Amino acid sequence: MDEKTSNEWNESAARLDARHRAFDELQDLRASQRQEFRAKILPGTDMFAWMAPNSRAPSDELLAEHSAQLRNLVRYTMQFALADDLSFQTNMSAANTVTRMIRANIELTRELKAAKSKTVRGRTRSKGTQD
């Protein structure tokens, strides 16, 4: 093997090694960013508490908690839709997921508004005066 070929191979290996290091650094950065973002939107460390509302809560509170969970999930998923360093397919998949979650949140909000317009017995308020 002549010296020129050996130098070219060494330079190529060094460039490849530098790419691998840059990729690993980017992955570490993304992981720390995800962890920081998750800490901002999801309180505490109990993953079960993030997903499962209190089963003894009234239905209006459950809807409100689900709505808040969806809001947090939309924020978390939005970071993947807007990430510059991910593939186009990943960005589009995340954007479609965000769209579906926003629609679900809108429906929950409508249900919450409808639930708040009812009386204690679950009936809608009468338009006229009560005799």
Q: What does it look like?
A:
With 131 residues, the chain is mostly helical. The chain folds into 2 domains: 6-41; 42-116. Helices cover 73% and strands 0% of the residues. It contains 4 helices and no strands. It is elongated. It starts with a helix and ends in a 15-residue tail after the last helix. The model has no long low-confidence stretch (mean pLDDT 76).
Biggest beta sheet summary: none
Quaternary state of the chains: single chain
Order of helices and strands: HHHH
Helix content range: over 70%
Instruction: State the helix count.
Output: 4
When the domains are counted, the total is 2
Radius of gyration: 26 Å
Strand runs, count: 0
Q: Are there runs of 5+ residues with pLDDT below 50, and where?
A: none
Mean pLDDT: 76
Shape: elongated
Strand content: under 5%
N- and C-termini, Cα separation: 105 Å
| Structural class based on helices, strands and sheet pairing | mainly alpha
For the structure shown, list the relevant keywords.
single chain; 131 residues; mainly alpha; 2 domains; 4 helices; 0% strand; elongated
What's this, in brief?
By secondary structure, the protein is mainly alpha-helical. It folds into two domains: 6-41; 42-116. Helix content is 73%, strand content 0%.
List the SSEs and their pairings.
Blueprint: H1 3-41, H2 47-51, H3 59-81, H4 88-116
Helix pairs in contact: 1-3, 3-4
